[in-house]
Amino acid sequence: MSILKASKLNYYYQDGDTRRFILKNTNVAFEKGKFYTIVGQSGSGKTTLLSLLAGLDTPQEGRVFYEKKNIEKIGYDTYRRDYISIIFQNYNLIPYLTAVENVMVPMAITDNKLPDEQETVAINLLDYMGIPNEKSKRLVTQLSGGEQQRVAIARALSTNVDVILADEPTGNLDEEMEQEIVEIFKMLAHKHNKCVVVVTHSPEIALQSDHSYLLRKGALKENV
Ligand SMILES: Nc1ncnc2c1ncn2[C@@H]1O[C@H](COP(=O)(O)OP(=O)(O)OP(=O)(O)O)[C@@H](O)[C@H]1O
């Protein structure tokens, strides 16, 4: 059964009298335990689709469902806070906080754990992502790009959600770092039963996903 589903999405920009469709009657469903990629030419609408799945934007028509509940009914703020995590190309970490403090931010908003417990969870998550204790106490600006993205993934995991959405998460990384991040996504899907949806330009990443979709002219097709 799917955990996340988009049904009949229409998204367009009004250009004078005409509607320029980015998504046209788009349907897609995602399951837990799988690693998905969405590919497509620049400007094809990948980020738009991810933004709708993340409840960051709303379609003119159509619905997004989380476990059969319309995310509009869940409430977009609640949905983004409690149901999903988003990973961005440029990490979106808070530069004046350490790695541990960055990972604690969502927990401080959503959890009733004591700060000490939150810190322990953050340190363990960072360690699991390959950021040792010594580095986790550094400001994130003192970490490499690959390390910063690992911190962002640890942060995404801190609220223990089932759905991880990532927009070009390896866009700023070299090939070796890219592959390390891809291995983490595979592990999250296959070992931790997460639903991982990644927008990417990389055919190499698409090849390694369980399902790949191609977005072209507003339509989503199996990428074979
Ligand atoms: N405010 C806007 N008004 C009009 N068109 C817009 C606006 N914002 C975005 N677009 C257009 O919507 C289309 C889809 O953009 P989107 O960012 O979703 O594409 P993308 O596939 O993620 O691109 P890329 O791979 O380059 O990141 C693009 O052609 C873009 O120019």
Overview features:
4-stranded antiparallel β-sheet, 6-stranded mixed β-sheet, globular, 9 helices, 224 residues, binds adenosine-5'-triphosphate, alpha/beta, Rossmann fold, 38% helix
Rg from C-alpha positions? 18 Å
Integer count of domains:
1
CATH topology: Rossmann fold
CATH superfamily: P-loop containing nucleotide triphosphate hydrolases
**What's the level 1 CATH class?**
Alpha Beta
Oligomer: single chain
- C-alpha end-to-end distance: 23 Å
Helical content, roughly? 25-40%
Overall outline = globular
- Ligands in the structure? adenosine-5'-triphosphate
Q: Give the count of helical stretches.
A: 9
- Rounded average pLDDT: 95
- Proportion of residues in β-strands: 25-35%
- The H-and-E topology, N to C, reads as EEEHEEHHEHHHHEHEHEE
Biggest sheet character: 6 strands, mixed
Number of beta-strand segments: 10
User: If classified by CATH, what would the architecture be?
Assistant: 3-Layer(aba) Sandwich
Low-confidence stretches: none
